[in-house]
Amino acid sequence: MVEEDPTPEASPLGRRPSAPAPPGFRFRRVVVEVPASTANLGAGYDTLALALDLRNRIEVEVTDDPGLELSIEGEGAGVLRVSRDNRFIVALDTGLRWALGQVPPDRGFRVKMTNQIPLSRGLGSSAAATVAGLVAANALTGESLDQRRLLTLCIEIEGHPDNAAAALLGGFVVVAMVEGRPETVRFDAPRDLRAVLFVPDLQLATADMRAALPRDVPHRDAVFNLGRVALAVAGLAAGRYDVLRAATEDRLHQQYRAQAYPALPRLIAAARAAGAIGACLSGSGSAVLAFGASMQALTAIGSAFMAVAADADLGGSVRMVSPRNAGAVVIEAE
Asked: Is the alpha carbon torsion for 127, 132, 134, 135 positive or negative?
């Protein structure tokens, strides 16, 4: 339980919760943090993902007056819908219906989102919002939903099991739908693994990037990727992140998506030439991820990214990131 500050201004939501939790709720206010994620990691199309230490922080307070107050700071401010169609609010309502049978009509919600995860860049922003909404609802109502149910609900809302699993569980995840249910294996990423993100100004819609993929692929390309997925899983589970050079090679999706993103092959090649131990498109893009074994290598990779971007007249920025072994967490509850 969070100790209450004596001054009204101390509440991050602008007011101090003074009333007890409403009937059916365990808490009146919770704060949730949820990480970004990078899916595919090259060869592992729709099966592999890694949580990254870019986080969205969402504060939710149950109010006694029906209605929604929603504010957004950081990524998505002025862009994301400030309504019940917001992905976080959709997930919050879904979690409340599962826990309480309905969204209480006599209660409202005051929500503040502080976002670090860029939108439409292949970094799992929609999965993070969905996971955060479900986790917040679960915390407010007493945690009646287990991780499998939370993940299943997230997939039903979001549709991307890999990003959803990484955001919920953290670390490195392998996920597959088995008889309509998500099966996941998760383990910690090596603690000294570091990466560089090139985040272009260019936004790419997931639906458009999926539409760029062929219906069928050559058998030899499928075998190529299968071997590299197995290498990625076994290698990272053993702490062998040197396998990422081969594991991030791909023949199933990146070459086709490059038709809509011509700078992609050059960005990946430049990162590898600068010393990356693996480089790939993050999810469906447009961010590009490269792993490095030292700060010197990471700096060189970042410079290589920016050189290609300048030559291609592609605006963007470079960010140093670490894998995040913690998934979505409730950091305050009162």
From this structure: positive
Q: Which residue has the tokens 């050559």?
A: 218
Dist CA 251 CA 8 (whole Å): 57
Could you tell me the pTM of the whole model?
Answer: 0.91
Rounded Cα distance between 260 and 277, Å, is 25
The span from the CA of 251 to the CA of 134, in Å, is: 35
* Long-range contacts (CB closer than 8 Å, 24 or more residues apart) made by 254-259: 254/42, 254/280, 254/281, 256/212, 256/213, 256/214, 257/209, 257/212, 257/213, 257/281, 257/284, 257/285, 259/212
Closest CA to 265 of 55, 38, 273: 273
What does the pLDDT look like over 279-305, one tens digit per residue?
Answer: 999 998 899 999 998 999 999 999 999
Distance CA 323, CA 330 (A): 19
What's the number of CA atoms in the CB half-sphere (13 Å) around residue 223?
A: 3
Helix, strand, coil share of the chain (percent; to 5): 35, 25, 40
Which domains does the chain possess?
8-187+324-333 (3.30.230.10), 194-321 (3.30.70.890)
